[in-house]
């Protein structure tokens, strides 16, 4: 993605979704698709899709729609699908173990290459073929395995301390699964995923709809 393009975070989060559905259309042999067809498939308002696409210039033609292969190639380049991104997982509890087992198998350009956990032995160990070390070796192994991003599934009390270390190391971004609202500099990208809040919001929507 070109640095001069300012993309809202909500739009940025939808880009991988567009890429996935365009892959589905291409696999079905479709050559072109309208914003309405994308809307029906993705359950996203067509006006939102057109607005998202408008940030990148003229991606389609009026009366024709969008060329599927062109869009697929465009989003592949935009999302850097040809460049591998190494990820470090910090915290191998229940959620961390699940992430190690999954390890983004459907995203060939993203992979957890190293993990850290307080229960790891001094000499390190492996879980699902991923090396796991004690947090004391974070700086050393993060660099050795050429990790760029970190996934945090640590305890709330240690989340900011680990974040400060990642900032000092020059990590580019954090996917935060902890309930803590982390403090990071503008140079670091941060995304928060709070499963309990999402579940509470879903319960509210269900009950509110019933009423």
Task: Summarize this structure briefly.
The chain is of the alpha/beta class and 211 residues long. The chain has 2 domains: 9-78, Arc Repressor Mutant, subunit A (Orthogonal Bundle); 85-197, NAD(P)-binding Rossmann-like Domain (Rossmann fold). The chain has helices spanning 9-27, 35-42, 46-54, 68-78, 94-102, 138-144, 156-169, 195-210, and strands at residues 32-33, 66-67, 85-90, 110-116, 125-127, 130-133, 149-152, 173-176, 189-192.
Describe this structure in words.
The chain is of the alpha/beta class and 211 residues long. 44% of the residues lie in helices and 17% in strands. The chain has 2 domains: 70 residues, Arc Repressor Mutant, subunit A (Orthogonal Bundle), CATH 1.10.10.10; 113 residues, 3-Layer(aba) Sandwich (Rossmann fold), CATH 3.40.50.720. The protein is globular. The protein starts with 8 loop residues before the first helix and ends with a helix. Modulates transcription in response to changes in cellular NADH/NAD(+) redox state. It is found in: Cytoplasm. Belongs to the transcriptional regulatory Rex family.
Compile the SSE list and pairings.
Blueprint: H1 9-27, E1 32-33, H2 35-42, H3 46-54, E2 66-67, H4 68-78, E3 85-90, H5 94-102, E4 110-116, E5 125-127, E6 130-133, H6 138-144, E7 149-152, H7 156-169, E8 173-176, E9 189-192, H8 195-210
Parallel strand pairs: 3-4, 3-7, 4-6, 7-8, 8-9
Antiparallel strand pairs: 1-2, 5-6
Helix pairs in contact: 1-4, 2-3
């Amino acid at each position: 993605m070109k640095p001069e393009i300012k993309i809202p975070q909500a739009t940025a989060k939808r880009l991988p979704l567009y890429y996935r559905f365009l892959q589905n259309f291409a696999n079905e042999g479709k050559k072109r698709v309208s914003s309405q067809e994308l809307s029906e498939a993705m359950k996203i308002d067509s006006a939102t899709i057109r607005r998202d696409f408008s940030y990148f210039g003229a991606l389609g033609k009026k009366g024709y729609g969008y060329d599927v292969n062109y869009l697929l190639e465009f989003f592949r380049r935009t999302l850097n699908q040809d460049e591998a991104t190494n990820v470090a997982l910090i915290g191998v509890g229940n959620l961390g173990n699940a992430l190690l087992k999954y390890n983004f198998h459907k995203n060939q350009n993203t992979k957890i290459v190293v993990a850290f956990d307080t229960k790891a032995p001094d000499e390190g160990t492996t879980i699902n073929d991923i090396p796991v070390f004690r947090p004391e070796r974070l700086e050393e192994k993060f660099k050795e395995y050429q990790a760029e991003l970190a996934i945090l599934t640590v305890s709330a009390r240690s989340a900011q301390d680990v974040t400060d270390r990642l900032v000092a190391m020059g990590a580019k971004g954090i996917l935060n699964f902890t309930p803590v609202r982390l403090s990071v500099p503008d140079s670091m990208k941060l995304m928060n995923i709070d499963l309990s809040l999402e579940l509470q919001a879903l319960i509210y929507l269900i009950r509110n709809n019933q009423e």
